[in-house]
Design a protein that fits this description.
Blueprint: H1 5-20, H2 28-35, E1 42-46, H3 54-60, E2 67-72, H4 75-88, E3 93-97, E4 109-115, H5 124-133, E5 135-146, H6 153-165, H7 174-178, E6 184-190, E7 195-201
Parallel strand pairs: 1-2, 1-4, 2-3, 4-5
Antiparallel strand pairs: 5-7, 6-7
Bound molecules: S-adenosylmethionine.
Length: about 200
């Protein structure tokens, strides 16, 4: 099947991702805290990329009881995630190549995380629906994503334009799309709309 624009983008970006993104992709620890991982949780990260969130999540899991599954549709990004897993000797972390909008993993999870991946998925509503299908009742889903830079004036317009060129569409109604799926839902914006952490309980 033909690769999407995002897959082509990461073919070239994968090799500089870990070095370049720490400057802009903030809030990982807050998002993992909102995920409320238990030692025996089954955690799914959708659009896991090179596994930059794995350090925080894997440390909270008991390797004998907990499990972390990372899913991404970019092979070059997952290759780097695989190296990270091997380097750390994480026997409780699995990686799967899959499209977030057509996820069929044949199992359910206690926790699901989207870390800066949702705004790169054109049909993000389908990705949310698939994620919710993979969540157990009472399970928790967290989204860490760029906000709309509402309070940034002209600079916000420029940043949104820059993100769009990089396949990130941050001006989508994510809260409205997420809320109906959950019995409890909260969203915390940060720094005048720079990013947000949304958390829902199914
Ligand atoms: C900005 S990176 C975030 C990676 C990682 N979650 C992080 O926090 O560093 C976005 C990731 O989402 C993945 N992605 C985008 N659209 C996807 C889709 N439809 N299915 C699976 N992965 C997707 C990309 O391949 C990329 O690795």
């Amino acid at each position: 099947m033909a690769h999407t624009a995002v897959q082509r983008f990461y073919r070239h970006q994968a090799c500089i991702y870990n070095l370049s993104r720490w400057t802009i992709l903030r809030g990982r620890r807050g998002a993992v805290a909102a995920l409320d991982v238990r030692p025996d949780s089954r955690v799914l990260e959708i659009g896991c990329g090179t596994g930059l969130n794995f350090d925080c999540v894997a440390a909270l899991l008991d390797p004998a009881r907990g499990r972390l599954v990372g899913v991404d549709f970019s092979e070059p990004m997952l290759r780097r995630a695989r190296r990270r897993v091997l380097r750390h000797g994480w026997s409780h972390v699995d990686l799967i190549v899959a499209d977030a909008t057509r996820l069929e993993l044949g199992g359910r999870f206690d926790r699901v995380l989207f870390g800066y991946s949702l705004a790169m998925i054109p049909d993000w509503n389908a990705a949310i629906a698939a994620a919710v299908r993979h969540l157990v009742p009472g399970g928790r889903l967290v989204v860490l994503e760029f906000g709309r830079f509402d309070q940034w004036g002209l600079l916000g317009t420029m940043v949104r334009g820059y993100l769009r060129v990089n396949h990130v569409y941050c001006d989508q109604p994510f809260a409205e799309g997420l809320r109906p799926h959950f019995s409890e839902f909260e969203i915390r914006p940060w720094l005048g709309g720079y990013n947000f952490i949304a958390a829902g309980v199914k």
